[in-house]
Structure formats: C-alpha cells, structure tokens
Amino acid sequence: MGRGESFYKYGGFGRKISLSFTVAAQSKPELMAQSKKLNYLASTLAPDYGGNGYMGGVLTTWTLGGWCYELPGFIDNLTLDVPQESPWEISIPATDYGGDPVKPIFSDNTVKEMPHICKVTMNFTPIHTFRPELHKNSYGGDGGEVSSYAKQRYLALSNGINNNYKAISLAQAQTDQNPNKPVKAESTTALGNDPQQNNDDLFLKDGSTIGDRERAANDPNPFIPE
Fold this sequence. Notes:
Blueprint: E1 17-24, H1 28-43, E2 60-64, E3 68-81, E4 117-126, E5 138-139, E6 146-148, H2 170-177, E7 183-184, H3 188-191, E8 202-203, H4 210-218
Antiparallel strand pairs: 1-4, 2-3, 3-4, 5-6, 7-8
C-alpha cells in the first residue's frame, strides 16, 4: 500500500563555503611573513577569552572577489598541508659569517626550516545579514525576463561600491559588454531603405557613428578645444 520512496522532512537551513588555495614564498622575507599570516589564520579557530576570561568564538568577515563581500561568519575547519613537491628552507647561512653568534648551532637566525609551499583548505560558515529563504524574483521584463531581484544575495556580486543585481535584458547586457558595438539608429530615415548600409548609418552608444570616428582619426588638423 502507498508509495515506495523515502519520506523527507525539512529540518532547517545551513550553508558552508569551502575554499582551498596554495601559498608559495619566493624569497626568505616572504617565507617568514607567510608563516606568520598562516599562524594568525589558524588562531581564528581557537577561542578568544576577552578581558573577563569568558571563552567566546571568533567571528570574521569574508571578502572573496565578487563571490562574497564582507560576509560575517566563522571558520570551522582549517587544514595546512605541505605538498610533497615543495622545496624547504634549510636555514643554513650562505657564508661562515652568517650564522647565529649566540646559539651553538650553525644556523641563519633570520629564518627557520620551513616549506616554501603550503596548501590551505578551509570551511567557512556564513551568518547572513538577511533572512535566508528562497530567492523570489519578479518577472515581467522584455520577453518575460527578470524585472527585479529579491534581497537574498547568497552570491554577493558586489565590490562594496555597486552590485550586478539589476534587472537587465540579455540583449542590453550584451551591448553593455561591448560599448562600441554598432547599434541601429531608431530613426528609419537615418537608416534609409538601402540594405547596404555605410559607416554613417552605424551608430554607437554615444550617438556618434563609425564614420565620425574614422574621419576624426584621419583628420590632419583635428579640433582641440582650449
């Protein structure tokens, strides 16, 4: 009796962002600076006891290109791997005068034995500034395209100055990507009835024509405003 498939019950929302990247030092100063930064990154998984001694987690904000911009959350997993092919700094001075005069070992005190390459893998749990729910767009643009976007921005598409969540038709988007792409003038008089159009009939977005651009480029005495 009944249906044979499993029964599913929605139990809540959760999201993680996984990221992996490789860091490689190209010089001795870079190696030490890189190691210090990785040490700080690893410390963000440990608690912060604050001034009163109470343990608390560490919140961070992530900016990753246009994928996320100043997104609050926390890093819940971090792995630092040394690839097998990575060269190592051996901390041996180039000359006999480069050693540490205090320590009894012959070693360069400005660096330590460290790998030049490290692969970093982490998981980030975001805490969204909006109520997570289905992204409900409004439709009604040209050809039934999106006329407005909802506020749920799981992918920010932002650089902090502007974002790309604006209603725009595919045709307009293609024109914006190529601002000098010729477009036909709205006036049929300007276009004429001849299918063999010349460059004066091909208009650019600024209102000029390709013919105007060609004449300006070939003018030996161009007009230069004072």
